[in-house]
Design brief:
The chain is an alpha/beta fold. The protein has a single domain, classed as Rossmann fold, CATH 3.40.50.300. It is built from 11 helices and 7 strands. Helix 5 crosses helix 6. Bound molecules: adenosine-5'-triphosphate and magnesium ion. Magnesium ion (MG) binds next to helix 1.
């Protein structure tokens, strides 16, 4: 069965896209056929994977709005497939307001191709609005990066409540695949928040080891590469490997 994982947090800049990209690559290293979906009008994942968002005229939004339009899949970008996004996805968001049963539109769009993949990983935008709801409705798992900062910690309750609402109203089978503390630095605040996150979240799902703040992630992205290709011996690769292993163990 295909595992469809939404990488979600309504907070901005917490490593959603970087995690999606690198998780995708580590699943590929495990010989798993993997498709990434960019659901963010910013198109960061599309950029990180080496495409120019503004040059694309077919994006995920076309297939969401029109069931007849097959998914624009770009194949084998460093071994991973991608359905891209660009800024026109924000217009799609507005158009969706008048579409019937809009929550299931991404789920339906994935229906026709999902059997070709072991994993589909969806990069959500930093919002609780419709594009995130579509993503969480299409997924069977949600993977949650959380920055080890006070503000992020405060947002966790809203995040968990959103997942509860999605389960109640549109996707009862959604399960939490895990939490990933991110952008960890050795400052005292980060240590205190990490401990609090671990205490609060461990009863709910696996809390992975923290991913440290490291410029190599940003440099790799600028180079359009996953970290493993950019810096083959980087210490953070261990956590990424663990997360990929964790996804394999999900039921
Ligand atoms: N561990 C890290 N250390 C330092 N910088 C990082 C790290 N991970 C990602 N970055 C950089 O931080 C920025 C934000 O990361 P990313 O785009 O993955 O976050 P995001 O949650 O997807 O953001 P958004 O909410 O805007 O979609 C990017 O420039 C990225 O290259
Ligand atoms: Mg992002």
């Amino acid at each position: 069965m295909t595992k469809i994982i939404a990488v979600f947090n309504q907070a901005g800049g917490v490593m959603k896209t970087t995690l999606t990209h690198n998780l995708g690559y580590h699943l590929h290293l495990k010989k798993r056929k993997t498709l990434l979906i960019d659901m963010d009008p910013q198109g960061s994942l599309t950029t990180f994977m080496g495409l120019e968002p503004h040059e694309l005229d077919q994006i995920i939004g076309n297939s969401i709005l029109n069931e007849e339009t097959s998914l624009p899949i770009h194949k084998n970008l460093n071994g991973i497939d991608l359905v891209p996004a660009n800024i026109t996805l924000s217009a799609v968001e507005l158009q969706l307001a008048s579409v019937m049963a809009r929550e299931v539109r991404l789920k339906q769009a994935l229906e026709q191709i999902k059997n070709q993949y072991d994993y589909i990983v969806i990069d959500c935008p930093p919002s609780l609005a419709i594009l995130s709801i579509l993503s969480l409705t299409a997924a069977n798992y949600v993977l949650i990066p959380i920055q080890t900062h006070f503000k992020a910690f405060k947002g966790t309750e809203l995040l968990l409540d959103t997942i509860k609402q999605i389960k109640k109203h549109v996707n009862p089978h959604l399960a939490i695949a895990g939490f990933v503390p991110t952008l960890f630095s050795n400052a005292n605040q980060d240590k205190v928040i990490l401990e609090a996150l671990e205490q609060q979240l461990t009863p709910l799902a696996t809390v992975y080891p923290a991913i440290p703040r490291a410029t190599a992630f940003a440099d790799a992205a600028m180079n359009r590469q996953p970290l493993a290709l950019y810096s083959a011996k980087h210490p953070s690769l261990d956590v990424l490997k663990k997360i990929a292993q964790g996804m394999e163990k999900l039921p």
